[in-house]
UniProtKB/TrEMBL annotation:
It comes from Erpornis zantholeuca. The gene is Dsd1. Transmembrane segments: none annotated. It holds the Pfam family Ala_racemase_N. Residues 9-130 form the Alanine racemase N-terminal domain. One of its GO terms (molecular function) is D-serine ammonia-lyase activity. GO terms for biological process: D-serine catabolic process. This is DSD1 dehydratase.
Length: 156
């Protein structure tokens, strides 16, 4: 009920951190779900099933190996992998650093490589490094730094 309220009843545009959550929301009629963790090889079959079943099941990538895995496992029936490039702007959990020379090359590979198989939807960054903050100014500083890093990367 909370997710339906949060989406204004559209049941679209939600982010989950586990595939169990994705399956739960899909069973509840949500058909636009982002799995907000780079797809591990051992979860690829589950992600493929959700991508085939839902209108828009989106995943994160943060490495050339992840891109190659999706390219080697295309979705059937004309469906495409919908991908967000995951940037690590200080959290240190997942993603590629926006200042890493490989990051821009990876973004270009996703966007220009095989769009009929893998389509770049956007850039994703999560400010999980705010969890340890003790006050609002500290959270705002991290948000500003993350926003600046993402905008600089997208501009490049």
């Amino acid at each position: 009920e909370g997710a339906e309220l949060a989406t204004g009843g559209s049941r679209r545009g939600i982010v989950v951190s586990t595939l169990a959550e994705a399956r739960f929301f899909a069973a509840g009629g949500f058909d636009d779900i982002l799995y907000a963790f780079p797809v591990p090889a051992w979860r690829l079959a589950e992600c493929s099933e959700l991508a085939q079943r839902l209108q828009a099941f989106q995943v994160l990538l943060d490495s050339p190996q992840g891109l190659e895995m999706l390219l080697q496992n295309p979705l059937p029936g004309g469906k495409r992998w919908l991908v967000w490039l995951k940037l690590d702007c200080g959290n240190g959990r997942a993603g590629i650093r926006p200042t890493d020379p490989e990051a821009l090359a990876l973004a270009r590979s996703i966007a220009e490589g095989s769009p009929e198989l893998v389509t770049l939807v956007g850039i994703y960054a999560h400010c999980g490094n705010t969890y340890g903050c003790r006050d609002i100014p500290a959270i705002q500083a991290i948000a500003r730094d993350t926003t600046a890093a993402v905008l600089e990367f997208v501009t490049a």
